[in-house]
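Saturday, quiet lab. Running sequence design on the structure tokens for the scaffold JK sent over.
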């Protein structure tokens, strides 16, 4: 079994003492049965991964000391995922998979047909952290608060292209053929798809590139993973 990995939001370096939250301490001692002297791997999203030795662990928390760097910091490509939240478990899935698939930032958007009016940003961020711990990553994508799609587009820097997964195009896909590298974001709609007004606006925006994800209409969570995979293979760090 590999080492238990934990995200710690504190500076990391040789000899650096770090604090474990009560939840982390419970996971280490109660679930993984690790105690003082055990080795774990910790990372903070900035300083790479570090082997660390556990100090005392109790219900109220614990401590560890970083010993040596086990992996350099690895940043994902400059790709953001914009998605409309759907049902809770499927929204959790999208965030978890986006973190695993190497998204650099996750932006939940409220579109006209989005059911959710609010999200639990802290819960979604915790899912992104868990995914990074689990997949051996050293980076955790930040998860934004919910923002309305029209507001997001109004403040958008056009240097970042948006790959718009447009269900109306479902059919043969020439996804990303000839598209340039650089900053990108992927936009996935809700269960009801995009409204006519949103579709007009997106179609009239020059940094938005509509694409088909094949002949079948995919669920939004499947569409997010499919689009991330295609982008990573064509323009990202899978090449
Ligand atoms: N209700 C919509 C319809 O019947 O046309 C389907 C919406 S789909 C469940 C959710 C989102 O996934 C869409 O808004 C789009 O972003 C993406 N999507 C699903 N299948 C797609 C496809 N074949 N091509 C492009 N985007 C797709």
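Result came back. Writing it out in full:
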């Amino acid at each position: 079994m590999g080492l238990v990995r934990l995200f710690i939001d504190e500076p990391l370096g040789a000899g650096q003492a770090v604090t474990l939250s009560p939840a982390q301490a419970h996971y280490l001692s109660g679930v993984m049965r690790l105690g003082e002297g055990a080795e774990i791997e910790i990372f903070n999203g900035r300083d790479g991964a570090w082997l660390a030795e556990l100090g005392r662990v109790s219900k109220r928390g614990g401590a560890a000391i970083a010993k040596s760097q086990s992996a350099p910091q690895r940043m994902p490509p400059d790709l953001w995922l914009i998605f409309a939240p759907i049902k809770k478990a499927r929204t959790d899935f999208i965030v978890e998979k986006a973190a695993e698939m190497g998204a650099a930032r996750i932006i939940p958007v409220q579109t006209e047909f989005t059911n959710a009016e609010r999200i639990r940003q802290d819960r979604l961020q915790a899912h992104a952290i868990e995914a990074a711990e689990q997949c051996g990553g050293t980076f955790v994508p930040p998860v934004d608060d919910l923002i309305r799609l029209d507001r997001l587009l109004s403040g958008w820097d056009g240097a970042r292209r948006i790959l718009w997964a447009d269900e109306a195009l479902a059919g043969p896909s020439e996804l990303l053929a000839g598209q340039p590298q650089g900053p990108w974001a992927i936009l996935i709609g809700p269960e009801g798809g995009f409204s006519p007004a949103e579709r007009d606006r997106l179609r009239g925006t020059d940094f938005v590139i509509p694409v088909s994800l094949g002949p079948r209409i995919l669920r939004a969570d499947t569409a997010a993973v499919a689009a991330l995979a295609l982008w990573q293979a064509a323009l990202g760090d899978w090449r």
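Notes for JK: The mean pLDDT is 95. The CA atoms of residues 92 and 150 lie 24 Å apart. Ask whether to fix the surface positions before the next round.
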